Each structure stands twice: as C-alpha cells, then as structure tokens.
C-alpha cells in the first residue's frame, strides 16, 4: 500500500469527524460568552486566539516537528510549552486532547518512530502529538502550523453554533474570513526550530476564563 | 489495545430519557453492591457534573470513584459515535482503582433513540418509566426493543398516572423478542433483588467469556415476526452489530 499524500493527511487530521472527542471542546468560548462576550464579537475572539494562545500551540507543534525530524529530545519542547501556558486548566485540557489524539495516531501510524517518541512522554499535550502525526504523514511545518490554527478556529465556531445558534452559513463565513489570519500565523511560526523561539504570547483574559470554567459546576464544554 | 478479552471490569451502560431514573438506579446498584464489588461510576450530563454531584451526595460510593465527562451538548455523540472521552474516563477509573469489578456509565438523558456503542460498554440497561405513559413501551425504539435489559421504572406510580405496569411490561416484552424486562420500583425490594441478580449474572457471563457486547440500534433488524417471540435470535443480532462497528 502506498502512502497517502500529505495534503489528504492534513484533511484527515483537520476533520471534526475524527474520534478525538472534539465535541467536548469550545476553545474557552463557553466561559467567554458567560462572561459577556457578545456573539457578534466571536470573530474577534478567534483573531485574538490566533495571535496569542493558539500561536503558542502552533509554534510548539512546529518546534516539536523540527525536533522529531532531527532526532532531538522532545522534552525541552514540552517544557517550553508548559512555561508559556500558565493556566493549569488549559494545560490539563491540552494533555487530555493529546491523549485522545495519541489513541488515534498510534492506530494510524503504528510503525512511526515519531509516534513512539511521543508515546514515551508522560501525558504529552496535543501540539506535541500532532507534530508526530505530521511527521508520520509527511506534513510540512507550515501545513502543521496551519492545521493548529484552522482547528482552533473551527473549534470556536462550531461551539458557537451550539452555544449561540445562528445561521450556520454565517458561522462558515466567519471561518472563511479568519483563514488569512491562520495563514499569517502559519508562515510566522513555520521556521522555528528551537524551544526558546516559541513565543510567550499568552492571553491573561482567556487564561482567567479557562481557570474559572474548570471549577464552574454547570458547563457543557471542557475548560 | 487497552481492551482485551481478559479485562476484569464489566462496563455497564445505563441509558434512557431524562427523569426515568438512571441516576437513582445507579445509586441503588451502588448501595446494593458496594460491599461485595469494587465499583466506579462515569456520568454524562447535559451540564457536566449534575449527576455526578447527585451521586456523590447520595453517599453510596467514595466520591473519587464518581467522575463526570463533558459532552459539549452532544450526549448522543459521546456514548455512540465518538466515545473517546468516555473510554478514556473509564480506562482512567479502572487504572486508578484497580481492580474494579464494575463501572456504571450513565448516559446524558438525550432521547428515546440514544443507546451505547458496544465499543464503550459490554452490556446496557435502557430505562423507561410508567409516568412516561403506557404507549412508550409499545412504540419501541432501539433501546426499548434491543437493550440487554429493559427496566420499566417507578411502578409504584402506576395508580397515580393511570398506567398498568403489568400491561406496560407485557407490551415491552412483545417487542423485545425474549430479552429481559424488569418492572422496578425503589419501593419494591423484590424488584431491586431481581435487578441486582441480573447485574451479577452479566458480571459472571463477562468473566466466563459468554457475554458478547451487542449494539441495540439504530437500525431495526429485519423480519422479526411474532413467531420468534420468546426465542431471541441472538446470532442474527450479533451479526448486525458487527456490521455497525466501524
Ligand atoms: N416514585 C418513584 N420515583 C422514582 C423512582 N426512581 C427514581 N424516581 C424519581 O425520579 C426522578 C428522576 O430520577 P433520576 O434518577 O434523577 O433520573 P435520570 O434523569 O434518568 O437520572 C427523581 O425525582 C427520583 O427520585 C421510583 O422507583 N419510584
Ligand atoms: Mg441522571
């Protein structure tokens, strides 16, 4: 059996129908709305994420891919991600998502050395696991970073459809409008190779919402 | 794969519409079984931890053994098509409290059509209650017709809602092709004993390898005429279930 093209693997990894519990995630939109974010500002929320917390995730994934492909230890990448992700709730969610994704990629690429390397880590977060999938599937750094950004946009917008229903073509239009910003992010982080280069671009308000959400008794989505 | 035929723990799903008594049934089983079995509970709720908090406050099990899973407003998805979050929660619970004998998974009360994937639970109970009306059993649906056990709950309320529980059980039996039905009430110790005996029987079957997880729905099996009544055509159902596990 020949290997699939990297383009199709990227489609597969971006597909919400993948069994990785994506339906449990709102990318912190739920507490943002609870805190008063107006629904018509959701596109701004998406943009804010792409410039801050999602930038950390995308850069982490790209640096992990570089480490995978040059045979360097992944642990410093995880440590750099941790240091730039101050919210314990967001770290916990990223690790839970990483675990779900690892279940899948271990099945898709059982022979991959990159997948074995992340499986050997203790509770790897999602961007680290996604980098292993990118290595196994032959994705470029820019495709990987674009995937992280795209997935984040779709996570926010699809949760928006549950939390504040609207005509879904409007939601799809929001996603479409955010794509150039995803491209900008992908290009900006694609050349990173070292953990120290991962930007420390957190968003204190998003982190505070995530922290509050983790302890709220009535929530639909994960923190 | 974490799953193997030798897994000790029986995973039992409890599903059915909101308010039919799923959380109460789980609390009842904990109360009845906690002294002889090592138990754990996973809840799926519309709002994440309502049921988990109810069960913790019932004081029938160590609160740490009761965990809630987020469903992102998709309780149906969480137990049927993307079971990842539940499977991880079950595996974590089994690892943290090994060896567990029984994990009870409560579905988010979605609707009459939601049933568990056989990849998540080994066996499942579907609940309806007399207060939902006598017609519910006759109308059927995948859980009513093909869950491993159908519980017609709250039989004590029959006189107040003008429903004859015996008739409801008999209606349910007629669409279930011989599969068991229990008429349950929290106020009827004999019915509780019957439920407990069924669970113990499932656990024994799981241990001796004779329990084969089956999918109750959503596809209706073809050509089950009344002539089959009392003789469950189980091979047929297993073949159908296998077709649906992708
Ligand atoms: N009368 C009566 N009420 C019951 C019985 N079982 C449960 N209930 C009540 O039914 C209501 C809903 O029960 P609950 O377990 O929360 O249902 P769930 O939404 O399916 O989990 C609660 O008020 C219970 O006390 C029963 O056997 N008899
Ligand atoms: Mg309940």
From TrEMBL, chain A:
InterPro entries linked: UreF, UreF_sf
GO molecular function ontology, one term from the record: nickel cation binding
Keywords: Chaperone, Nickel insertion
Protein name: Unannotated protein
Gene source species: freshwater metagenome
Organism taxonomic ancestry: unclassified sequences, metagenomes, ecological metagenomes
UniProtKB/TrEMBL annotation, chain B:
Record-annotated CobW/HypB/UreG nucleotide-binding domain positions: 13-182
GO biological process, alphabetically ordered: urea catabolic process
Listed InterPro entries: CobW/HypB/UreG_nucleotide-bd, P-loop_NTPase, UreG
GO molecular function: GTP binding; GTPase activity; nickel cation binding
Nucleotide-binding among keywords: yes
Keywords (A to Z) from UniProt: Chaperone, GTP-binding, Nickel insertion, Nucleotide-binding
Sequence ranges of Basic and acidic residues compositional bias: 226-246
Region Disordered, annotated ranges: 209-246
SUPFAM superfamilies per record: P-loop containing nucleoside triphosphate hydrolases
HAMAP family in alphabetical order: UreG (MF_01389)
UniProt xrefs under NCBIfam families: ureG
Family: Belongs to the SIMIBI class G3E GTPase family. UreG subfamily.
Identification of the protein by name: Unannotated protein
């Amino acid at each position: 059996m020949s290997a699939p093209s990297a383009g199709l693997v990227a489609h597969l990894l971006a597909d919400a129908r993948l069994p990785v519990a994506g339906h449990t995630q709102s990318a912190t939109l739920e507490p943002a709305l609870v805190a008063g974010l107006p629904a018509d500002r959701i596109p701004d929320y998406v943009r804010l994420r792409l410039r801050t917390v999602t930038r950390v995730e995308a850069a982490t994934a790209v640096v992990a891919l570089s480490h995978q492909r040059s045979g360097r230890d992944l642990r410093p990448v995880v440590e750099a991600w941790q240091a730039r992700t101050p919210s314990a709730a967001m770290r916990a969610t990223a690790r839970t998502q990483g675990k779900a994704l690892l279940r899948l990629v271990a099945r898709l690429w059982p022979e991959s050395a990159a997948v074995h390397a992340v499986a050997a880590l203790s509770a790897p977060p999602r961007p680290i696991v996604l980098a292993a999938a990118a290595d196994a599937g032959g994705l470029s750094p820019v495709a990987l970073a674009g995937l992280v950004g795209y997935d984040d946009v779709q996570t926010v917008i699809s949760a928006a459809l549950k939390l504040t229903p609207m005509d879904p073509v409007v939601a799809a239009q929001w996603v479409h409008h955010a794509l150039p910003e995803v491209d900008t992010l992908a290009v900006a982080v694609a050349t990173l190779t070292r953990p120290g280069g991962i930007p420390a671009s957190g968003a204190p308000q998003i982190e505070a919402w995530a922290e509050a959400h983790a302890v709220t008794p009535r929530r639909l989505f994960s923190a | 794969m974490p799953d193997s035929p030798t897994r000790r723990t029986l995973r039992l799903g409890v599903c059915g519409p909101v308010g039919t008594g799923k959380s109460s049934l789980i609390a009842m089983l904990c109360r009845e079984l906690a002294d002889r079995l090592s138990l754990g509970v996973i809840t799926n709720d519309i709002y994440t931890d309502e049921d988990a908090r109810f069960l913790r406050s019932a004081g029938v099990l160590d609160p740490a053994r009761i965990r809630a899973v987020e469903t992102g407003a998709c309780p149906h998805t969480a137990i049927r098509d993307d079971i990842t979050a539940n499977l991880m929660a079950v595996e974590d619970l089994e690892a943290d409290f090994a060896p567990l004998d029984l994990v009870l998974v409560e579905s988010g009360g979605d609707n009459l059509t939601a049933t568990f994937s056989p990849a998540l639970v080994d066996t499942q109970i579907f609940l309806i209650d007399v207060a939902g009306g006598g017609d519910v059993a006759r109308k059927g649906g995948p859980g009513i017709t093909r869950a491993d056990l159908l519980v017609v709950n709250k039989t004590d309320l029959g006189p107040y809602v003008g429903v004859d529980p015996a008739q409801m059980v008999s209606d349910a039996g007629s669409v279930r092709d011989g599969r068991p039905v229990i008429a349950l009430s929290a106020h009827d110790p004999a019915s509780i004993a019957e439920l407990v005996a069924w669970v113990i029987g499932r656990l024994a079957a799981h241990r001796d390898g004779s329990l084969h997880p089956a999918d109750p729905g959503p596809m209706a099996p073809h050509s089950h005429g009344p002539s089959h009544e009392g003789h469950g055509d189980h091979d047929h159902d297993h073949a159908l279930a296998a077709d649906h596990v992708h």
